[in-house]
Amino acid sequence: MAKTDATILIIDDDEDILLSAKLLLKKHYSKVLIKDTPKELNQLLSSEPIDVIVLDMNYRIGFNDGKEGMYWLRHILDVRPEMVVILMTAYGEVELAVNAIKKGAFDFILKPWTNEKFLATIQAGLKLSKSRNKVTLLTGAKEVLEKDIDQKFGPIVGKSKEMMKLMEVVDKVSVTDANILILGENGTGKQHLAREIHKRSHVKEGPFVHVDLGALSENLFESELFGHMKGSFTDAHEDKPGRFELAENGTLFLDEIGNLPYNLQSKLLTVLQDRKVSRIGESLERPFNARLLFATNAPLKEWVDEGKFRQDLMFRINTVELEIPPLRVRPEDIEEFVFHFLEIFKRKYHKSNLSINKDAIDLLREHSWPGNVREIQHTIERGVIMSDGHEIRITDFNLSAAPPAASSPVHEIENLNIHEIEKMLVEKALEKHDGNISKAAKELGLTRAALYRRLEKFNL
Hints:
Layout: E1 4-11, H1 15-25, E2 29-35, H2 41-47, E3 52-56, H3 67-79, E4 84-90, H4 94-102, E5 107-111, H5 115-153, H6 161-174, E6 180-183, H7 190-199, E7 208-212, H8 221-226, E8 227-228, E9 240-241, H9 243-246, E10 250-255, H10 262-274, E11 276-277, E12 286-287, E13 290-296, H11 300-306, H12 311-317, E14 320-323, H13 334-348, E15 355-356, H14 358-366, H15 372-386, E16 391-392, H16 418-432, H17 437-444, H18 448-457
Helix pairs in contact: 13-15, 16-17, 17-18
């Protein structure tokens, strides 16, 4: 019979008890430690991966009051709150053992014991120990992940009047339960702002669940958002909660909400109204409690007029509307972003003495940044990676100065109708990149899906 990988520690002043327990347990567990005194507990707890401790309640001849056992129980749980402690006691000390359970012991074993009862108690304690250790590991991993995410996103950067005005509104709405729609071009930092709202909200201790609807295929939308039951469709091999359930007591951020198919918009509306969600293949309605944030770079109001987006859903998701201004209308924030990302990537690539020379700074100020903050981030990272020595030069960025305003294609059009200008820009981008949709979409600051919609709109 294969042994269970676990370490059991038995502490008792009776050598016969120790020997009997060890002979029994070593048949079932990989490591069994025995000690005749609890005085070495501190050293053992720091050097051995102990899963369960079996602790006698008395260690002084003639004393059966259990005080020593209670003392060491408290000590163990002070040092290792997750530790599973099982007490060994004589029949007449059952009341003491019951009191010890109230103080945090897992269970007790009566001496003399039956082997079946002894093994069952140890196994139950081990199961709890493994569960507690798993929770501890997951909690630690969650804390590390959240710390890494905080470092990645950092504080909101920008001191321009446009950003100051935006953050004043953020201060007001973050502490409410209002649904918020965040608008802005690609790369302006919509996810960043959503995380900032979460951190300032009353559910900041809960999870922040981000769903990029633009990255999901249409047949996965419903399963990802609402969950599914085992067997509800071909690949449903197990029950799976949706993102609404995973965001319980936290924030659910539905990014690129414009990508939600029209046939699912009505279901989302019902979920938002009733605050209940049903998994695919299940009739049970599960209530959820999560703060809801939405974001898009799509012209939802135009789509409402065109019948592509439900008006009632639009009203539901934008109780408050926040729009992040693009960098071209707040050039005074460019340099702050440059040095913000410079510090991040200096630490990441261990180049603490790195700086940017004046010509490179001038180039960064002059650049139009069509990709907004995300473009600055990638540009600075490239500069840090490509730099030699202690200074980033112009050639490290692979950027060119912005072209003169007169060369802008808008000046080639006499008719300044917005519809015609947008169509012309799409045509120019496709021509420039030989019909490559991905490259054209990136040039225009759009997602592939958004560009496809415009191709359909302009019959291109």
